[in-house]
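From the methods appendix. Each design record in this collection lists the tokenized structure first, followed by the designed amino acid sequence. Records were kept in a plain field format so they could be parsed without special tools. The example shown here is representative of the layout used throughout.

RECORD:
FOLD TOKENS (342 positions):
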């Protein structure tokens, strides 16, 4: 019970504790073989031609909201398919209403909404791999599941390019499993390709990005740099998870408060707004940010009820601890991109 309370207080975007009002999302699908038809808006969790949770924002941001519709954001959401016994298979059904509703009212609302002032938000539904594919000993089956999920994402992105992009600047944003696929998507479509010229920046959070993953796309080292990528994984200061210790490389880490490689540390007082239990409210001074050997550290977050917090892995809050900072940085990079490409 205590663990449930903790997660409801801090991380409502991945639990059923969300207090946000439901959005009128249509979950009716028509697919004979389970493959998504991206000409149908139902196969998009977020799309500029319909009202969806990515259109939301905390109350204090509404007065200054001036969306820039000259750019696009392609957002890949994290895993919401958590079938430990694999009774529902290795990949989620594209028409599973429970999974889709969870995705919409968690990741799309609490993460994709960060970017709605920097461009039109596109987030394709995909047959996501089961969360436990990351931990199973059946690596062949897990890889096949990830491949199937990526097949959907690739098809969605190609459809987006063919029907919606029209040469517009692109921001890639992702978290967790979404980043697993976004890394692959960027290497296939952007890295050393003509489309790289349209890349404003990529925000690849929640999964490690190897320093040599891309040949031509650099890591972002300053807040206004464009054509680059940012990445971070958040843990309590002083803690290094066992899976990080096993990595044979030092992952790229961006400080999501300073965005400056020469400023690897910022205390919580530099953080002007996190989004926690109540989506409509931003809370300042919750978490700091310190780059440390392939991960991002923060001292124990400070918010109402944080004395209950026992976890040391803040993966679930990679975006929400730094909500306002990421939102502002995306707009800053887009402004810089447009200035350089007049």
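DESIGN:
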């Amino acid at each position: 019970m205590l663990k449930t309370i903790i997660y409801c207080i801090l991380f409502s975007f991945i639990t059923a504790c969300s207090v946000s009002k439901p959005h009128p999302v249509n979950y009716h699908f028509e697919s004979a073989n389970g493959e998504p038809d991206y000409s149908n808006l139902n196969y998009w969790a977020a799309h500029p031609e319909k009202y969806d949770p990515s259109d939301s924002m905390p109350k204090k941001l509404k007065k200054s909201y001036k969306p820039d519709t000259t750019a696009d954001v392609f957002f890949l959401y994290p895993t919401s398919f958590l079938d430990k016994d694999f009774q529902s298979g290795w990949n989620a059904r594209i028409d599973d209403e429970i999974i889709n509703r969870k995705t919409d009212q968690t990741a799309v609302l609490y993460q994709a909404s960060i970017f709605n002032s920097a461009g039109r938000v596109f987030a394709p539904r995909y047959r996501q791999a089961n969360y436990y594919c990351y931990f199973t000993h059946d690596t062949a089956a897990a890889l096949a599941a990830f491949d199937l999920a990526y097949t959907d994402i690739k098809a969605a992105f190609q459809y987006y390019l063919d029907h919606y992009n029209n040469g517009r600047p692109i921001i890639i944003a992702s978290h967790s499993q979404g980043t697993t696929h976004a890394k692959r998507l960027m290497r296939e479509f952007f890295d050393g390709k003509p489309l790289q010229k349209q890349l404003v920046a990529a925000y690849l959070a929640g999964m490690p990005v190897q320093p040599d993953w891309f040949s031509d796309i650099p890591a972002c080292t300053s807040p206004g740099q464009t054509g680059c990528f940012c990445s971070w994984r958040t843990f309590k200061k002083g803690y290094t998870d066992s899976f990080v210790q096993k990595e044979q490389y030092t992952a790229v880490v961006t400080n999501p408060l300073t965005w400056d490689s020469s400023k690897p540390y910022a205390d919580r007082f530099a953080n002007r707004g996190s989004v926690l239990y109540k989506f409509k409210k931003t809370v300042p001074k919750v978490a700091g940010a310190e780059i440390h050997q392939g991960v991002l550290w923060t001292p124990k977050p400070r918010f109402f009820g944080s004395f209950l917090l026992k976890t040391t892995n803040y993966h679930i809050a990679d975006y929400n601890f730094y909500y306002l900072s990421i939102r502002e940085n995306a707009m800053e990079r887009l402004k810089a991109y447009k200035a350089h490409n007049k």
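APPENDIX NOTE: Residues 1-22 have pLDDT under 50 and may be disordered.
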